[in-house]
Amino acid sequence: MQVQQLLSYLQANHDKAVSLAALAKVCGYSPFHFQRLCTQQLGLGPGKLNELIRLHRAYHLLLFRRWLSVTDIAFDCGYQSSDTFSRAFKRVTGYTPQQFKQGNSHLPSPLQPYLTRWNKELAMPVNAEFADNVLIHTLPEIQVCALRHTGQPARLNNSIQRFIGWRRENKLPPASYRTFNFLHNDPTTVAPDAFCFDLACERPSRAVLLADDMRYDTIPAGRYACLKVVGGDSYLESAVNYLTTDFLDAYNEEMADFPVIVERVTFYPEVPYHQAENHIFLLLSK
């Protein structure tokens, strides 16, 4: 079964009623055969899969599009009313959408257990795929506005919320001002309190008022190893690991004293989860 094709179709039709027959046709199977394959390969029947994909979208909209009302999100995710949406969201998460918005941003997405499994089992890259796509470029410096998150990775969503809110207040949309993350360390290998992660956007030519915990910073000019990746978080993590280990060893390169940079080119939920585009930049020391 073409899993990515199925997931793309469901995410692209998040606001529409989708029948079993339509999904089976997308994947090229009879409804009976498709339903059996879906359960075998993804661990979910088509109806439950569709519901969790919609609730996964709702989870991200509630977290990071906080100006949207619960009703707006309900309609965006294909529910006929905010009450129907609220019942579905509470059934899966234990919280109503309003309760979630008011202080439960540390909760995992309803789809997260399945995403973790699919990322491990489906279309995981091999290093040869990355090696064929690494380019070396000399890049100019970029001035940015940055917010640093330190401490518990589980609280990163709170920092992302504040950064998105600050950008919105200052009219700095991602379509006009590039978005970057600086990866200082790996949350899976450092103590939670030592985790450090920067959120940044291109600095505008006009003056902007930084929040108290923000700063101006500079992505330095220099020689960079660059790798474009399209995929979910696990795919991105694999690409970063390749650049910072195997690539450096294979080409006798050294990493300069600057963190790994990830430019977020397209984001979920604006594009399907596995179609998010990121550019990784590794500053080289020579």
TrEMBL record:
Domain HTH araC/xylS-type stretches: 4-103
Entry keyword Transcription regulation: yes
Coiled-coil ranges (or none): none
Signal sequence extent: none
InterPro entries: AraC_E-bd, GyrI-like, Homeodomain-like_sf, HTH_AraC, Reg_factor_effector_dom_sf, SmbC-like, Tscrpt_reg_AraC-type_HTH
GO molecular function, one term: sequence-specific DNA binding
Sorted UniProt keywords: DNA-binding, Transcription, Transcription regulation
Protein known as: HTH araC/xylS-type domain-containing protein
Species the sequence originates in: Alteromonas lipolytica
